[in-house]
Amino acid sequence: MKILRFGAVGLAAALVLTACSAGDDAADGSNDASGGTDGAQIRVWLVGTDTPDEAREYLTTTFEEENPGSTLTIEEQSWTGLVDKLTTALSSSDSPDVVEVGNTQAATFTSAGYFAPLDDIAEDLGGDDLLPGFVKAGTWEDTFYAAPYYAGSRIVFYSDQILGGAALPTTLEEYVEAAKSVRTADHSGVWFPGQDWYNALPFVWENGGFIAEPGDDGAWEAGFSSPGGIKGLKQVQDLMVNASNAPKDGDEAELQVPFCAGQTTFLSAPNWIRWSIQAPADAEAPGCADTFGADLHAFPLPGATAGETAKVFAGGSNVAVATKSANVDLAKKALTILLSDDYQTILAENSMIPAKKSLVSALPDDEFTLASAAAAANAELTPATPKWGDVEAQKVIQDALVQIAQGGDVETIATELDAQIESILNG
Amino acid sequence: MSSTMLRPAPPGAAPPPRATRAITPTRLLPWALLAPSLAVLVVITGYPLVRMLWLSVHEYERAQLLGVPAQFVGLDNYVATLTDERFWAVTARSFAFMLVCVVATITAGTLVALLLMKLGRAMRLVLSVALLLAWAMPPLAAMLVWGWIFDTQYGVVNHLLTAVTGESWMGHSWLISPLSFFAVAALVIVWGAIPFVAFTLYAGFTQVPGEVLEAAQLDGANARQRFFDVQVPYVRTIYVVLIVLSMIWDLKVFTQIFVLQGIGGVKSETSTLGVYIYEMGMAQGHYGAASAIAVIFTVLMLAISAYYVRVTVKEEPL
Fold first, then answer.
1. What average pLDDT does chain B have?
2. Which chain A residues touch B281 with a CB distance below 8 Å?
3. Which of B45, B62, B269 is the closest to A87 by Cβ?
4. How far apart are the first and last CA of chain A?
5. Could you say which of A8, A10, A134, B65 is the most buried, measured as most Cβ atoms within 10 Å of its Cβ?
């Protein structure tokens, strides 16, 4: 019945258009890009709270200084249901101008013409200095549509008060054993909610498994049921069942809450969650700066063999200009600011891996960032196909992991999961 | 000359006056009064319906939304839907869930209506206000609150169960098994639907003449007999309408299931038709396929509604 929405959008669009043609001189966004840029308003959609306030302010001020008369508004969106929301918004006549999108979601939009080509300003944005994996994620059929915004990776947090003097694990197997050994009825060795598929992937990759790869005939073959995949998922099940008290069907939102409640020894989470943990206890989103946050430490997830870090999921975002933006040229200017050295340096100083390789030196010299950089060096992406977005939208991996968390038979679940992934990617 | 010749002609031409009578104000008035609502219906329901039918016979994906021409595929989307196991599983699940919800809603609504009849003035007012508040609560807000009540880690239900039974219920997930997921969903939906059913039935029950009930009592009918043999037949048509409306509402339920899926549970085992259409269309961008499912769904709903319309029309002939 959601189809009804199209009608509503159409009606709203009709109303907007009439309002503009009625001679509203202040009407801004509805003018042609060529028709003068005076008084235009650029809307930038940033997702989640990851972008620090300092960066937001820099973007608004710089843009309005460089483009007198025009204004820039940042509208914060939520990661939940982002693909649905972007689809609706980007195809409407009231489209935002610049949008942030998860790196694994970019292909859904680049392949369908939702983003304006950026080839003409690729050099201004940073050219070869941009993170190659993210440029690849934002490129479709040799056209560059979505620039890297920032990257990050998951690292393992712990608090000295809880871990005590115990030695840190040096291999993935030791990590599993260490987490299992400290688990009690109300304390987890590692906090592992059933839907947290980002944290399950390293186990699959480290044991030689894979998500999906193109076969000889060009069709995608999924690899969760490969020998390595099964081995990895069994490790995941061992952790979920024997080391974690997290909800078996929970997701990876608000991970600082159990950590700050002292309910877990290890917490594998994006590096910037450090700020959530070390927020004051009376903040709007409370952390525990004075208790478990006071002696917070982190290390990169160890790999299968000692001395190596595990392959982890390359998290991060891309930014793009909407095809339907009323002011593509101005939007591109805003995008250039997002990718400017000054702006990216602010992100780097806040422990987010910048979109430009040359700015890595701006990263703070603390253990969280170093751990994150070490993990990022070994980061992997999801399969490069626009249909990957459907796999995420259907939550097939999450559903399979929830069953694994409940102690289901790993081989059966993995075989079914692979069949589902293959039918989506090849369908 | 010719003009004088023509002059008598107008009075002689009899039909024009009759034609003007055909559009006298009294004949136009009903249409004029209907026009605003018809216009709204055409825009809000008519156009999307036509659009949905059009979409369902085209291959319409995300790219088409931006203006790439859509390809006509005939009935392919329908064939794909009707041969898809998932569609049948979702449909069967939706109907089963609807049946449980309707039975529970009507039963509980009847009991509350009877309670309203028996209560004194003050308590009846309190109960009415409580019912109204439950009814006025937006489904989304209600779902979030119910979600917290059944929360795995910090939920009130788990806390109470732990306190009462002495065993640890903390960490028990209510949404992880489809059966208990739907039990929670049904609880919330029935909770939200009771007020309307209770008020409507209460209104109906108050119209049952007291002397008939008294006569039945004098003839030796007990409370159960008086209810089933006197009160229910009096409000039979109200029951029919309420049951049909509940069937429609519970079949197209979306918000409650969608929000619960966000809180926990396994998506593939808990989707109902409304959510399935959303997943197919909005989440995955297969608008053509989603429209085909929506058309099939609409036909199902129309079949149920047709009965409702017939009953209503019989009640108050136009």
1. 88
2. 2-3
3. B62
4. 25
5. A134
Sheet strands (E) in A206-329 = 212-214, 220-222, 264-270, 296-299, 312-313, 315-321
- List Cβ neighbours of B192 (8 Å cut-off, separation of 6 or more): B134, B135, B137, B139, B142
Average pLDDT, stretch B238-261? 92
Counting as low any pLDDT under 50, the low residues of chain A are 1-37
ipTM computed for the complex: 0.75
Q: Domain boundaries in chain B?
A: 85-285
Partners of A393 on chain B (C-beta within 8 Å) are: 279, 283-284
CA–CA dist A173, A169 (Å, integer)? 8
Question: What pTM was computed for the model?
Answer: 0.80
Structural tokens at position A308? 């190596």
Helix axes B255-263 and B178-206, enclosed angle (nearest 10): 150
Task: Indicate whether B233 pLDDT > 70.
Answer: yes
Q: Would you state the pLDDT for residue B316? A: 57
Q: What is the dihedral of CA B122, B126, B131, B137, to 10 degrees?
A: 150
Residues of A in contact with B48 (CB under 8 A): 3-4, 6-7
Rounded Cα gap, residues A67 and A56, in angstroms: 17
Q: Which of B236, B110, B62 is nearest to A112 (CA)?
A: B62
Domains of chain A (ranges, CATH numbers)? 40-152+315-362 (3.40.190.10), 154-313+379-426 (3.40.190.10)
Domain B85-285 has CATH 1.10.3720.10: yes
Residues in contact with A414: Cβ distance below 8 Å, sequence separation at least 6, in sequence order: A224, A225, A229, A230, A233, A400
Instruction: Please name the amino acid found at residue B217.
Output: Q
The token pair that represents A368 in the structure block: 């969280």
The H-or-E segment that residue A45 falls in is: strand A41-47
Cα–Cα nearest to B194, from B248, B247, B131: B131
β-strand pairing of B71-72 with B58-59: antiparallel
> What would the pLDDT profile of A340-365 be if each residue is shown by its tens digit?
999 999 999 888 889 998 988 888 88
**B108-165: per-residue pLDDT in tens?**
999 999 999 999 999 999 999 999 999 999 999 999 999 999 988 889 999 999 999 8
Q: Which residue of A has its CA nearest to B271?
A: A394
Q: How far is A280 from chain B, CA to nearest CA, in Å?
A: 22
Lowest mean pLDDT among A204-218, B163-177, B185-199: B163-177
Q: In chain B, which residue's Cα lies nearest the Cα of A424?
A: B284
Residue of B nearest to A83 (CA): B283
Specify whether the CB–CB gap between A271 and A135 falls below 8 A: no
Asked if A22 is an interface residue toward chain B (Cβ–Cβ < 8 A), one would say no
